[in-house]
Task: inverse folding
């Protein structure tokens, strides 16, 4: 039974075949506005594992600064105009997943200590820039992330929202 070479080839092929669920270039429905806002009410981002993305609120009063930074990224700026930003979970320094710190209200990388404000702008540490962003659209009550639209984060020193650390750091 276990010696059939066809079974092992089939398993290897299945392992190598790309998954269509949330891969690069796909559009992923991450949730409803009400689900996302329920996370915001708890002062935490909405996380979608299949898209590998955090959804955070983007303040309307920061849009003029965002337009200067993201004017050439209409997919990203469009989401900000809707009041949301989609942040890729990966740290641009070494690729670690960057968790949310509830006390500081920042993203804090456990690998080498890079820290990012609520909207993923770099505040400290060795990362070369902030957290990268995906395009995002809102249709009715549904938020969709466009993984084909990945914009490199703005450079060190970008601060469109003025949000500082709000409590003790986690890292």
Result:
């Amino acid at each position: 039974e276990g010696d059939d070479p066809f079974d092992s080839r089939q398993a290897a092929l299945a392992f190598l075949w790309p998954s269509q669920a949330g891969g690069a270039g796909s559009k992923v429905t991450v949730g409803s506005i009400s689900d996302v806002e329920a996370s915001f009410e708890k002062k935490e981002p909405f996380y979608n594992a299949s898209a590998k993305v955090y959804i955070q609120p983007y303040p309307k009063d920061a849009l003029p600064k965002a337009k200067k930074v993201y004017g050439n990224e209409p997919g990203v700026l469009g989401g900000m105009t809707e009041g949301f930003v989609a942040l890729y979970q990966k740290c641009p320094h070494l690729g670690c997943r960057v968790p949310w710190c509830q006390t500081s209200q920042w993203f804090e990388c456990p690998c080498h200590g890079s820290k990012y404000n609520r909207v993923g702008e770099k505040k400290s540490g060795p990362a070369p820039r902030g957290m990268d962003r995906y395009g995002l659209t809102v249709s009715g009550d549904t938020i969709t992330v466009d993984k084909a639209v990945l914009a490199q984060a703005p450079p060190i020193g970008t601060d469109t929202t003025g949000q500082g650390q709000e409590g003790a750091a986690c890292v």
Confidence is low (pLDDT under 50) at residues 4-22. The longest strand covers residues 142-151.
